[in-house]
Amino acid sequence: MSTDKKVRVRFAPSPTGGLHLGGVRTVLYNYLFARQHGGDFILRIEDTDQTRFVPGAEEYIFQCLAWAGLEPDESVKQGGDYGPYRQSERKELYRAYAEQLVEKGQAYYAFDTPEELEQMRQDFKTEQNPSPQYDYQVRNKMRNSLTLSKEETDRLLKENTRHVIRIKMPENESIGFTDMIRGAVSFNTSLVDDKVLLKADGMPTYHLAVVVDDYLMKISHAFRGEEWLPSAPVHILLWKYLFGLENMPQWAHFPLILGPSGKLSKRDGAKYGFPVFAMNWTDPKTGELTEGFKEKGFLPEAFINLLAVLGWNDGTEQELFSLDELISRFSIDRVHSSGAKFDYEKAKWYNHEWIKKLAPEELTARVKDVLAARGLVVSDDPLLLKVVQLVKDRASLLTDFYDQTAYFFKTPENMDLAAIQPKWNEVKQLFFAEVIRNYELTGDWKAETLENNFKEIAAANQLKPGEVMLPLRIMLVGGKFGPHVFDIAEILGKAETIKRIQHTLGLLG
RNA sequence: GCCGCGUUGGUCAAGGGGUUAAGACGCAUCCCUUUCACGGAUGAAUCACGGGUUCGAUUCCCGUACGCGGUACCA
Which domain holds residue A389? Predict the structure, then answer.
């Protein structure tokens, strides 16, 4: 395995649906590794399964990466010297490699129909072996170029009989490699089935495509999820047969991200109320919408941060990392080998931290978009900036800003009158009437003045400030939340403050 | 079933032959705050089990259990 060549890594998604948390983390680790080593990050579309083509899925992946700020150096979009970057467009190139293997006796043609394969699985199925594989034992009982005569095989081929090319796994050999995360890993070849390399439609399977393309695209390090570990021996063998082990990239298999009960799925998201995809994804067939982290109100900075530390840490107590910090601190050997359960509460904590950490202007710009999406258009930027600064400790998601800021810009829609009604009385009614008269005459409309006047009037009416502060808050805010009530009044201004008090008085009266 | 990979509080995790086994999220209590938060303090809670190796194992080795992944002409 070479270590001196230029670092080139790739993320190779299959465009079949929403982009999963784990997928984004794989992108992130690839990206960090590439940037750290001054290498290239390639996005390769693995669309070899035409039956699973989903319109829009590819474009969606690009949008997710753009949002996350993890854009590739080479891809269908960016271009590059190693294209095409869509495997369906590379179709013609794979067959020769598969046939080369057949010639060398390392692979063979198989003519079994799907029905015959199904029959085989039925026939060989036992309690000890519930899922029989097409392996070194059963291949002798199937219809392939190993069991058929040369003439018969040639005839079938000439007649364009539907067939696949399968790798011929050696018998009882040990295939091993060094995983950058797990160390030595090895497999017995007898236990691995003769994977299909080239499908009947002429498309390669993942197994063939991944090694051919990694070779052709000069990939130096191949990172992928742990679910690929069991098929690694096939890939290693293919490298050995086709391009030489010395040219093989270094492998690292990342741990899986788990949900509350095992493997994380979009169902978990629906069930537990948290996103699983990076961005909103609507299934074009069913029209089903699955919510994304972006729309849920996550900052890309936070999303990246929380993903980075789900399975990796730098050994210090630091938990908050910017992308740049991650680029310099990340290291594959500190990536865990065990899966991590996704904790939505902690995810929200990261977002909250980033809301506090982000530059005020930057935060405000993003809040502005979120408010606009909810139909609240704010044109006074300086005012919004002030308001956002005032309430940001109370928002852990960007979407929380709606409830936390809307009352500054429009009269509260829902008034929590129940919070004041039980203890409401004539004295308080008169008190607020006096407050209105006083505020109308107040020239210095500052929080401190308003508070002092308010308290003086309360004292004169034998009211404790605490008895009337909450009612005032409800009048201005609509509910029991928000920053210091007189700060709110100051920002609302004289006319609006008085108007809201009056309005509520009317409701209570 | 078989194969592979894992296993430190509820969760993320540091650590790695001798430690009072960090820290964070969450939770609880208190302080601050005449709201809700922020912030501060305190607390409950962990080395899956059994054998070795060793003067000494959470740490190394072997089993077992458990979890996860794979077992497709899907990736």
Answer: 358-409
| A473 Cβ within 7 A of any nucleic strand B atom | yes
CATH classification at residue A131: 3.90.800.10
Q: How far apart are CA A379 and CA A290, in angstroms?
A: 32
Phi, psi torsion values for A400, nearest 5 degrees: -65, -25
Is A425 found in the same domain as A395? no
**pLDDT averaged over 10-residue windows placed end to end, chain A, 509 residues:** 78 95 97 97 97 95 98 96 96 97 97 95 91 94 95 96 97 94 94 97 98 98 97 97 97 93 80 92 94 97 97 94 97 95 96 97 97 95 96 97 96 91 93 96 94 96 93 96 97 97 91
Burial class (CB in 10 A: 0-12, 13-18, 19+), A501: buried
User: Which residues make beta-bridge pairs with A188?
Assistant: A174
Give the up-direction half-sphere exposure of residue A323: CA atoms within 13 A in the CB hemisphere.
17
Specify the number of domains making up chain A. 3
3-state secondary structure A72-114: CCEECCCECCCCCCEHHHHHHHHHHHHHHHHHCCCEEEECCCH
ipTM of this complex? 0.95
Annotated catalytic residue: which of A168, A266, A294, A368? A266
Q: Which residue do the tokens 């009266």 mark?
A: A509
d(CA A42, CA A219): 9
On chain B, which bases lie within 7 A of the protein's CB atoms? 1-8, 10-15, 22-26, 34-38, 67-75
Q: Would you say residue A150 lies in a domain?
A: yes
